[in-house]
Design a protein that fits this description.
With 413 residues, the chain is α/β, with parallel strands linked by helices. 28% of the residues lie in helices and 24% in strands. The protein binds ligand LLP. The modification N6-(pyridoxal phosphate)lysine is found at residue 59.
């Protein structure tokens, strides 16, 4: 095994005993993140893209320990907000890219304060208004322009960014905008992002995007980098093959063609998805009325994690593997449901799995990307804790939020 590790870590590869110990120590729901796996994922990407600038899209997982592990591996940071920029700089990234999507004034103020204080920053603007607002605020540093590449891809339409008018300037307007910006900024690059969770069979869309970016780079010239986005998918189903990063890299190089600029990519999910699991405990099991075709009665298993802990199933109908860590039992159709008062609050519906019992510990796979990050306090539910593992050591990385933490912002309470 190399530093890059196996191509994919499945939920079954985690030690049930280790995870059970963690649940006992820190309680549930609990995110567990394996920093060694984050490092392996980073190494595999860097192996595939040896001559590209690889920037971690920190939105996938902004935990400090993860940011540091990825930074140590040699990646840069790609940030979507002032908060992410602050986190990345605090975690010691030297070069930070801020991709501003309709940036609130407060975000620009915070980011430009950091820039004035000496932060090595590149701002990616996706609208003429953003460029004007940066100029008005006295920014004259490195600027890249986000382009709408007219093509997108992703695991769900809600995360297919490329081609949507929300993101980037119209492709045909980009040369003129870039030329105009050169007077006031250090124009360094062009940027596009197809979407999130691009699978092997969507590589054609990626190729098309990259080819367009190559054409644009040759047309405008004098750029330091061409950023073709992130979005590299990971398998969520147990039988899905992993994306081959070498194949993605080859396709990218080939589609880009000869450009006098560095290739940049900005994956998020790929680095962290399979480095994380969510542990949750069963508190309620009940039969489904009138159900059962194969002699077994389907059940609903109520657990202490919900859509407020891991939103992806509710938001994108995303599939996440679920494993019973407590016992192997005869299988039956199981609906795993959270405590939130919405029917969307399900981790799976009628999935065949070992019959759960009250007190069982379940692990939900691929929870490392867009897991904790999308947690909310809906239903006044505190956000979960997170533990990180590194070698044989385990430590608490984010404390469990308390009800007081949820309610304390209220004025006059
Ligand atoms: N660059 C830009 C400009 C992006 O907008 C994104 C993701 C990335 C890079 C990283 O994409 P990744 O490599 O992680 O796929 N919450 C959704 C994913 C939303 C992604 C948004 N943008 C989910 O859980 O599937």
């Amino acid at each position: 095994e190399t530093a890059a590790g196996p191509a994919i870590r499945r939920l079954d590869d985690w030690s049930a005993a280790d995870l059970a110990d963690l649940a006992d120590e820190y309680g549930t729901p609990l995110y567990v993140t394996d920093l060694d796996r984050v490092r392996e994922n980073a190494a595999r990407l860097l192996d595939a893209f040896p001559d590209a600038d690889v920037r971690y899209a920190v939105k996938a997982h902004t935990g400090r320990a993860v940011l540091e592990a990825v930074r140590d591996a040699g990646l840069g940071a790609e940030c979507a907000s002032a908060g992410e920029v602050v986190r990345a700089l605090d975690a010691g990234y030297d070069a930070v890219q801020y991709t501003a999507v309709n940036p609130p004034a407060a975000d620009l103020d915070v980011v430009l304060d950091r820039w004035r204080a000496g932060a090595d920053l590149t701002v990616v603007a996706g609208a003429r208004d953003t460029i004007d607002r940066l100029r008005d605020r006295g920014y004259d540093g490195r600027l890249a322009v986000r382009v709408n590449p007219g093509v997108g891809a992703g695991h769900h339409e809600k995360v297919t960014t490329g081609g949507h008018a929300k993101f980037g300037v119209p492709y045909d307007r980009a040369p003129e905008l870039l030329a105009g910006a050169r007077a006031d900024f250090d124009v360094v690059g062009i940027h596009a992002h197809a979407g999130s969770g691009i699978s092997g069979d969507q590589l054609d869309a990626h190729r098309e995007l990259v080819a367009r970016m190559g054409d644009l780079a040759r047309e405008v010239g004098d750029l330091a980098f061409v950023d073709v986005g992130g979005g590299f998918g990971v398998p969520y189903h147990e039988d899905e093959p992993p994306l081959d990063p070498d194949a993605v890299a080859d396709a990218t190089r080939e589609a880009l063609g000869d450009v006098d600029a560095e290739l940049a990519v900005e994956p998020g999910r790929y680095l962290v998805a399979d480095a994380g699991v969510l542990l949750t405990r069963v508190n309620t099991v009940k039969p489904v009325d009138g159900g059962g075709t194969d002699g077994t009665v389907p059940v609903v298993a109520g657990v202490d994690a919900g859509m407020t802990t891991l939103l992806r199933p509710a938001m994108y109908d995303a599939y996440h593997a679920i494993r019973n860590l407590t016992a192997e039992r005869p299988e039956r159709p199981v609906t795993v449901a959270g405590p939130v008062c919405e029917t969307a609050d399900l981790f799976c519906e009628g999935r065949t799995m070992p019959t759960p019992r009250r007190g069982d510990l379940l692990a939900i796979g691929n929870a490392g990307a867009y897991g904790y990050e999308m947690a909310s306090t809906y239903n006044s539910r505190p956000r979960p804790a997170e533990a990180v593992r590194e070698g044989d050591e385990v430590r608490l990385a984010r404390e469990r939020e308390t009800i007081a933490g949820v309610t304390d912002l209220e004025v006059g309470r």
